[in-house]
Amino acid sequence: MKALPNNAVTTRSPGTLASAEASARHRSPWLASISAWLENEAVLGYVLMTPALLLIVVFIAYPFSLGVGLSLTDKLVGKPAHFIGLRNFTHLFESQIFRTTIWNTVFFTFSATVLKAVLGMWLAVLLNRKIRFARFIRASVLLPFIVPTVLSGLAWLWMFDATFSVFNWVLRWLWQTTEWLFNADFGYFRGPRWLGDPAWAMFSIIMVNTWRGIPFFAISFLAGLQTVPAELYDAGDIDGATGWQKFWHITVPLIKPIAVVVIVFSFVVTFADFQVVYVLTRGGPHNSTHLLATLAYQLGMGSGNLGEGAAVALFMFPFLALVILWQLLYLRKEGSQ
Amino acid sequence: MPQRVPQQAGGNPAGGLTRRAFLSTSMALAAAAGAEFVTGQAPALAQTRTLHVLEWSSFVPAADVLRDQQGAEFGKQAGVKVTIEHINANDLLARATAAIEGRKGPDILQLLNNNPHLYAGGLEDHNQLIAELGGDKFYPFIRDAVTVDGIARGVPYFFGGGANTYRKDIFQKVGIDKLPDTWEEHLAAGKKLKKFGMPIGQTLGHTFGDAPGFAYPLLWSFGGLEVDEKGKVAINSKETRAAVDFVKEFWFAACDEGGLAWDDTSNNRAFLAETIACTLNGASIYFVARYTPEKTVPGMADKIGHFLMPRGPAGRFHTVGPFSNCITTYSENKDVAKDYIRYCHQKEVYEKFLVTNKGYINGPLPEWQEHPMWEADPAITIFRELPKYGRRAGYAGPYDRKAAEVWAKYIVVDMFAKVVQGESPQNSIAWAEQELKNVYERA
Fold first, then answer.
1. ipTM value of the model?
2. Is A282 on the interface with B (CB under 8 A)?
């Protein structure tokens, strides 16, 4: 085998090489030592991690520790704080508004997450079929997720309006049409008080949160579905499996890892939801839709009681930390398998 | 062989920045920003005298336009750039909290009710200004709203309140010959209106004006109080029970039941859409009908009248919500801010503001009640009566931050809302008592 000429091992032209050497000669010693230092992969790794670390410290760790500190004080806006231990937390438990809020938050989170997961999976299965304009439809499905929540919230507010609700208008029309068809008088039908009745108000905020969250689930599940090999379904067909059996025994196990990540992520975001409630009900009627985030806002920003507001906000932390821990352990277990 | 692009490594494409120049410029800008962060001051070249005022977005749009014009006029006179920012009244508290805790933001905060008590630690001493602009002549209930431990933390600018806006033609049509003077008469009128299909519209939602504006006076007129003179919780009384029982009947017999979650704008829309015939409100519904008739059905303005809150066994009451201008302690333009407040209270300047509002607001000094504006339009003359019946939140206890906290938590409003939603009167009152104790009796 003929040896390669020396100049073949580099792509640099002689002119470039000369320029680099000249550049190195002119480089200051401290710059050269930094270059050498960065050649060390261990050092370079930390250097590259530093921006992300700084972001986490500034935007997550610092506000979090500030929140922990505030929750242990009697801090009122514009006044100095005094350490009061866990008194904010014990005081919160004496308030029925707080106890109601915890129940609301748990109910809201579980209901919305389950609905988003089920409907998101359903939508993903539909979108995974070979249909015309598939790309366009998939992109369109993302719209609720893309539109700013406050904006879409205002549109929903109008649709739920006690006087001008389009839903009630349609329901009334159906009511009257039915009366006409059966030649009967069922009496006056007003329609649900979407935001005026505690049960309907909770239903409404769950509905809006679900509407907004489904695209995230659907697109994530769709990505998972597209990684499932078609041969497995063919094998299922040969074995005479029904559609449901194929879904349960092939699809679900294979997209489980991605489903866990998506559900946990959504659970955390839903638990801390603020915008939907703030725009639609501000926690009313009589606190029946207050979530921990909106109550924290009302106490901290509305009443100037920053210590107690921080305690409410911090109350979310242990629950969310447990969920995240479970997710990490699950993913590690999956990874080791 | 490809041609080498000259200076590509150094990076000076025609018309562009060199990498070195880019880095130098970025570092200089970063240093300037850093200096501002450390010293809290903008670089000298960016410094101009400015005044930032945060205030509500009025239900009378012309009033906001005038405020902007007056701000600009003051700016011209004083040689400062005046920025008046109008936001939803429901969001003022959040902005104030963020500004005072961050020690950065508006020089003047417009605060509602007795919210200056919440932010006293971050607001200047305004005693001197108050003395200059009226002293003891300010209505007591608005002076108390800004006075914290003997120090004024703002200057009351105006106060607002509601009266019952009603449709004269519908009242006539259903046979209401005399305007309701008592709650019983109001209930009787409401029954007729509801039967006709245009009931009374009232909110019991979490919204700053109309909900507490109904709930507090109703409670007071039956003799109920959230606390006594010593600040001890006194809600659990036979008077409160009478008020709660009344609301339960009133709501279902006379009101639009969809109003439970209305905000301060919902009843305006419902009234103008002719789905309700009576609602507690400022004069804004009438103004829309009178001054923008194209937005309503023809002739609507002439069909609208107003009457005061009904009287109960303990009398007739109205909430009077003061709006006060408060200079922040962190402001670097305190003297300019004080001059601005003085300017706003100058007779000719304030008169324009009052006249533009056409009865939607009341002046902070009783002398403004004599202004001919009140006689110009009989439909709004009734609003001049509000100070006579004005009572502050937290009555009969001190007008302090605890009263403000109860108001902000909607405890009194929710007591009524709960009973309307099917909770028993005794449970609703017991709930309110516990929540009030959490505020008033907390160490």
1. 0.74
2. yes
